[in-house]
Design a protein that fits this description.
2 copies of one chain form a homodimer. Chain A is mainly alpha-helical and 117 residues long. Chain A has a single domain, classed as Orthogonal Bundle (Arc Repressor Mutant, subunit A), CATH 1.10.10.10. Chain A is built from 5 helices and 3 strands. In chain A, helix 1 runs antiparallel to helix 4. The longest helix of chain A is centred in the C-terminal third of the chain and has 36 residues. Chains A and B meet through helix 1, helix 2 and helix 5 of A and helix 1, helix 2 and helix 5 of B.
Chain lengths: 117, 117
């Protein structure tokens, strides 16, 4: 079953963990429309600010968002490139399904082709 | 930030949790090439059978694989439809980014168009 615990595997683990929460997915969806302050984001979430900050940290530590502090305001911004890792992983799965379908087709059609000759 | 804890959110949480592990992703990759018995899958994983079975159960309970027992052999099969949920979620994010780019373009180009007239 190939390699375990490569660097990419570690990164993918973190990205999928970060995506496995409705609050964090809601933050990503909101940031897709443009940067926002932690205060504004938190005001829309049904939880305390410390609880919300934990979600922000999970998203930031796994590279899905970037944050920057100016004075007392911390602004969050989406890191779109990180989503490409998930795209790539999904594409890799679909390619292997396509390969299998191709092999099955060759297996099924080849004997029939021979009979025709 | 819209709805929290919808049914779809619960399903997506589980799917992303299931994907957040290199052993489980390796099983999905292997099953992309066709069904396989738990015994064969486990023989390629560097862990005990009980530990491996936990991963199989996480994949099955979150709908990414189906398993069926015939005699003493349990066979696993990929449930490709479940991957569409992740595709849809990613597409939804990208659509919101595209909407934002469109709005920015309209904002930037509209005053210039007026000047030309």
């Amino acid at each position: 079953m190939a390699q375990y615990s490569t660097v990419l595997d570690g990164v993918l683990d973190g990205v999928f963990v970060a995506l496995a929460d409705p609050t964090r997915r809601a933050v990503l969806r909101r940031l897709g429309r443009g940067p926002a302050s932690v205060g504004d984001l938190a005001s829309e979430a049904p939880m305390t600010l410390p609880s919300f900050m934990k979600h922000v940290r999970v998203l930031e530590s796994n590279g899905l968002i970037r944050t920057a502090k100016s004075g007392r305001v911390r602004t969050c911004e989406l890191n779109r490139e990180r989503f490409a890792l998930v795209d790539d992983w999904l594409a890799e799965q679909r390619n292997s399904w396509a390969d299998r379908t191709d092999r099955l087709e060759r297996f099924v059609t080849t004997p029939q082709e021979k009979e025709k000759q």
